[in-house]
From TrEMBL:
The keyword Hydrolase applies. It comes from Medicago truncatula. Transmembrane segments: none annotated. Keywords: Hydrolase, Signal. Belongs to the 'GDSL' lipolytic enzyme family. It is an enzyme of class 3 (hydrolase). This is GDSL-like lipase/acylhydrolase. Residues 1-32 form the signal peptide. One of its GO terms (molecular function) is triacylglycerol lipase activity.
Length: 366
């Protein structure tokens, strides 16, 4: 798995994430979008991987961590490594802001969470997780099953605090975002010997789809109704995949992009079938592949200059522990880079991508 080469076991003092929620964030958060019929969303609940992990991995025994500088360089007042895999905000924060819920979406495992934090939503995501349970096992992170169990615990906490009726209202009216799967393709399938000998791309994507549908159905059974699923990104063109699979000239790696296209096509079809079966569900497919591809292929249109390297170090392989305070050549202007490290976009890229992916789809949640 890629993280096995990129990361070493790292222990760092845990960050008091609750104190960070008081930081004033102005220019770097997504603008709220007008919701249909003047509706309001009580909470945003997020499941997934490092793209939407706002710090859960700080509190578990994994090497997939980023609660150290230079992560968080542009978070809040600056130099606040919270466990978010970027220089600042991540999509879970930006999406919460777009739905008008709050500016920061805290990690569920933060021991300093207050009742109001729970009532308005949390992220259960864990960097390094995947639809495939093996992906989470290899990275020693929270699987989707673990995240779902935490959601059940979350429901009980809400029920005890505000009563069953209000809990059920919060659960049914909230928006749920699922963002996961890239590590299955980029790491477990491409970089380990555990899946590729048994599965070609069609078969492996079928396996991932089966896990995805099981998760969506369990989530629906627990009361979720407004569920957005972010598809696979243009994963073969992130810097680390260029380095690993792109040859001497670091072209985009075709295998990962092919797998993403196949998976996304199947996901759309299965989500349509699910919604027909469960008409109370509002399932929204959120396409990130095409916007991300367009951004990478046309960086100047979005104000970016560098597309094939991350801001941290050489930008070709550094992520997690390899992107640290000792990394040489940390770029001076992250806003000109699409990628912060070799795997994760910058806050600036995330802001643009969230608008491109979500703004025109928000109406579909209602």
């Amino acid at each position: 798995m890629k993280f096995l080469f990129q990361n070493l076991l790292f222990q760092s003092p845990l960050v008091n994430l609750f104190s960070l929620t008081t930081i004033f964030i102005s220019l770097h958060c997504g603008n709220a979008v007008n919701l249909p019929n003047n509706e309001t969303i009580p909470a945003l609940i997020v499941f997934g991987d490092s793209i939407v992990d706002s710090g859960n991995n700080n509190y578990i025994g994994t090497y997939v961590k980023c609660n150290f500088l230079p992560y968080g360089r542009d978070f809040g007042s600056g130099n606040q490594p919270t466990g978010r895999f970027s220089n600042g905000l991540v999509p879970s924060d930006i999406i919460a802001s777009k739905f008008g819920v709050k500016k920061l979406l805290p990690p569920y495992l933060d021991p300093n969470l207050q009742l109001e934090d729970l009532l308005t939503g949390v992220s259960f995501a864990s960097g390094g997780a995947g639809y495939d349970p093996l992906t989470s096992q290899l990275a020693l992170v929270l699987s989707l099953s673990d995240q779902l169990n935490m959601f059940k615990e979350y429901k009980n906490k809400i029920k005890e605090a505000v009563g069953e009726m209000r809990m059920e209202m919060i659960i049914s009216k909230s928006v749920y975002i699922i963002c996961i799967g890239a590590d299955d393709i980029a790491n477990t399938y491409s970089q380990t010997p555990f899946r590729k000998p048994q599965y070609d791309i069609p078969a492996y994507t079928n396996l991932l789809i089966s896990y995805a549908l099981d998760f969506i159905q369990e989530l629906y059974g627990l009361g979720a109704r407004r569920i957005g699923v972010i598809g696979m990104p243009y994963i073969g063109c992130v810097p680390s995949q260029r380095t690993i699979g792109g040859g001497m000239y670091r072209h985009c790696s075709g295998l990962e992009n092919e797998a993403a296209i196949v998976f996304n096509s199947k996901l759309v079809s299965q989500m349509d079938a699910f919604e027909n079966k469960f008409p109370e569900a509002k399932l929204v497919y959120l396409d990130i592949y095409n916007p991300f591809m367009h951004m990478i292929q046309n960086p100047d249109k979005y104000g970016f200059e560098v597309v094939d390297e991350g801001c941290c170090g050489t930008g070709e392989m550094e992520a997690g522990i390899l992107c640290n305070s000792y990394s040489l050549n940390l770029c001076s202007n992250p806003s000109s880079y699409i990628f912060w490290d070799s795997y994760h976009p910058t806050q600036e890229a995330y802001n643009l991508l969230c608008s491109m992916v979500l703004d025109d789809k928000i109406k579909d949640f209602f």
